[in-house]
Amino acid sequence: MIKFLENKGIPGSFRDPSGFLFYRNGSIYRQVNAVYKNNYDLLINSNLYKTLLDERLLVSHEEIDTEGAEPDKAYKVLKVERIPFISYPYEWCFSQLKDAALTTLRIQKMALNYGMSLKDASAYNIQFRKCKPIFIDTLSFEKYHEGEPWVAYRQFCQHFLAPLALMSYKDIRLNQLFRIFIDGISLDLASNLLPLRTYLKFSLLSHIHIHAKSQNYFADKAVKKNNRKMSRLSFLGLIDSLEAIVHNMKWEAKGTEWSDYYQDTNYTSNGFGHKKEIVTKYLEKSKPNTVWDLGANVGIFSRIASDRGMQTLSFDIDPAAVEKNYLRCASQNEVNILPLLSDLTNPSPSIGWGNEERMSLLERGPADALFALALIHHLVISNNLPFNKIAKFLSTICKTLIIEFIPKNDSQVKRLLTNREDIFPDYTCNAFEHEFKKFFKIRDSEKIKDSERTLYLMEGV
Amino acid sequence: MSCFVFYQDASAYLDPGTGSYVLQMLIAGLLGALFFIKLSWKRMKIFISNLFSKNKDDKVFRE
């Protein structure tokens, strides 16, 4: 787990001179700098803050009578509502990024009604609380001056429009470019990668292709001032145009490796039911507050935890599985589960300035309990990971482990070994237990009915 | 073509990008006009549907 320095700015909150987040006595505070005074007062006095709060679109805060972390610059100090788990755009599925984009535009439209406008449109300003997107940067609002274009237009296109278009028209995996480019996907890159047919859509032609050309053309040119202005109607037209493109962007969750996994398992219904019973029993024994389900697919087992009020993260490597999981959360208004995209063999690293702007997955843990169900054989046989390394890693991200061992005589393991040489003589139940006992204490284990598989409840030592 | 107004707010920190500014100015008129047509069309539809539903209500009331 990351340890923030007491009274120091939190990494990732330093670019905007309007203020910054800092950590004190276990709580997160936001210092509002004097330079932002007028805009902050307008946000509060215009009722925009209250309206956004009522619509559950902005995190709440409380003004605190205390000294800021940099008192000479401070105007106010706010105690900020904490988001249970910080996630990043490269961990979101298509619909999560789309909902984040639509939320940003909805906030921008509301802000305009109150005489304000967003001065940035970073995807990192959106988080998921109760599985719904929420804006977390209270200092992103500034007074709207009629005549001005949207200062955050370029950033919106780079953080939302370009990745969504690439995911929709080219390849769903291209949201991973977010991991490389901290300020979104450059429009010239997006324009190069997008198929030619996107030139036929006026919205994508103008906001991505011509936009990219315009950026390149004016990159080294000085622009003179005159009195040409962008009317409020045109400004609203721009936001409406962006909203329409994002709204019409589609991606259907099918055809990926794991998206139909549950139609393709070797469990009998009796065995599957028994597995659920054992997981439930182990959860009731360990009573965790937070659960991470690794390799969750569409989140069937995650929901055993989330339905019991446990804050559950449902991780999977497959964009279609995460998409289906998220759409179900959204349609059922589920509040305790958050599906996220994660490749366990290469989890999110810490990135950005000084490698500390965006936290690694490990820095955001550990979870009270972790599910590793029908996972171990993929790690060992498909990824050549030794038991020892798996046990060591899992012990760093959880306190309690609910793990399933699947032996070689299981049809799923046989399938993994069909087209490769079996170089795993140590892939046995005894070797598994031996290595895991170095990092965990086995509290319980039970064989799943009608199968060769065993579930374990383990506690970190 | 390359003549536009640049505002600088005291707390502005994001580089809007010259090309992005210029493009907004170029497409502003068209987007504004399209938005105006969309709004007018919506208002007209609401007006017409209200007109018909009012007539219907009146008819029901008379019956």
Secondary structure layout plus pairing:
The complex is a heterodimer of chains A (461) and B (63).
Chain A (H helix, E strand, L loop, with lengths): L18 E6 L2 E7 L3 H9 L2 H7 L6 E4 L9 E7 L13 H20 L2 E3 L7 E4 L2 E4 L5 E3 L9 H17 L17 H7 L8 H17 L13 H17 L20 H18 L3 E5 L7 H5 L4 E6 L2 H14 L4 E5 L25 E6 L3 H7 L4 H11 E8 L5 H6 L12 H8 L3 E8 L6 E7 L1
Helix pairs in contact in A: 3-4, 3-7, 4-5, 5-6, 12-14
Chain B lengths: L17 H45 L1
Please provide a written account of the structure.
The complex is a heterodimer of chains A (461) and B (63). Chain A is of the alpha/beta class and 461 residues long. Chain A has 14 helices and 15 strands. In chain A, the strands form four sheets. Chain A has a seven-stranded mixed beta sheet, with helices on both faces. In chain A, helix 10 links the parallel strand 10 and strand 11. In chain A, helix 3 packs antiparallel against helix 7, helix 4 (153-169) packs parallel to helix 5 (187-193) and helix 12 (387-397) crosses helix 14. Chain A is globular, with a radius of gyration of 24 Å. In chain A, 45% of the residues are buried. The model of chain A has no long low-confidence stretch (mean pLDDT 93). By secondary structure, chain B is mostly helical. Chain B has one helix at 18-62. Chain B has a domain at 36-63. The longest helix of chain B has 45 residues, at 18-62. Helix content of chain B is 71%, strand content 0%. Classes of the chains: A alpha/beta (461), B mainly alpha (63). Chain A binds chain B through residues 15-18, 35-36, 39, 119-120, 142-143, 145, 147-155, 157, 206, 210-211, 213-219, 221, 223-231, 233-238, 240-241, and chain B through 2-7, 9-36, 38.
CATH topology of the largest domain in chain A: Rossmann fold
Q: What overall form of chain A do the CA principal axes indicate?
A: globular
Q: What is the chain-wise order of helices and strands of chain A?
A: EEHHEEHEEEEHHHHHEHEHEEHHEHHEE
Provide the structure class of chain B: mainly alpha
- Please give the count of helices of chain A: 14
Q: What is the CATH superfamily of the largest domain in chain A?
A: Vaccinia Virus protein VP39
The ordered string of helix (H) and strand (E) elements of chain B is H
Number of helices of chain B: 1
- Rg of chain B computed from alpha carbons, rounded to a whole number of angstroms: 23 Å
Instruction: Give the CA-CA distance, first to last residue of chain A.
Output: 17 Å
Oligomer: heterodimer
